[in-house]
Amino acid sequence: MIGAVVIDVDDTLCLTEAVCFELENEVLARIGRAPMSRAVHLSTWGQPLLEAMHERSPGVDLDSFTAAYHVVLREYVGDGRLDVIAPENLAALDELAVAGRSLMLLTSRTEAEVEHLLAPDHVLAGRLTAAYHAGNMRFGKPDARAFDELLAATGLRPGQCVYVGDSPGDAQAANGAGLRFVACLQSGVRWRDDFAAHHVDAFIDAFPDVVQAVARLEGVRAPSPPEVRSSTL
Questions:
Q1: Domain CATH code at residue 73
Q2: pLDDT per residue over 20-40, tens digit each?
Q3: What EC number is given for this enzyme (predicted)?
Q4: Running DSSP on this structure, what letter comes out for residue 37?
């Protein structure tokens, strides 16, 4: 039985690339930097933010960027512009839970970037059993060891877990750890061909389709995890 559905945040549970592009350019403007192009943002989407900023704004002072970023982040969240989870996505989470699946988040975001999603008054409260992020994981995606803490804490075998994400890096991490992987293409940022180098158990066009995708996978034998998992960082 598939016991856990582990979910990425950005462009999976909620659509964020376009608004993050706007947010980060607002931060750059506030610290006197030129805006990045959308092409650069798209080409680095999926990387941890501060790593990506070296390419998005070469020479940027990361301390200044970080300080302004958290101010703008709070503004965007407060205005309801960032991390809006659609009602149909919440309904899909509830269907997964009714079917007996534990629900968890696993993201490359920092703790500060997810704290609002984990607040006791958030719509996710009571729906999630755990959340894993850069603050409580030793390794980040695409390293397969990103799932080490989750598997150790739950006692689940990798084949009992499905990871739902939107990027080839998500697929690489899940494949390396022996988890099943569902690719969500709803954002339109990536296409099936982008995952050609990785195993994908199912593609979904919109997040709510995950309910049926997971149900179908339950009757399919899970892949065996590789014997050796090396860091890709």
A1: 1.10.150.240
A2: 999 999 999 999 999 999 999
A3: 3.-.-.-
A4: P
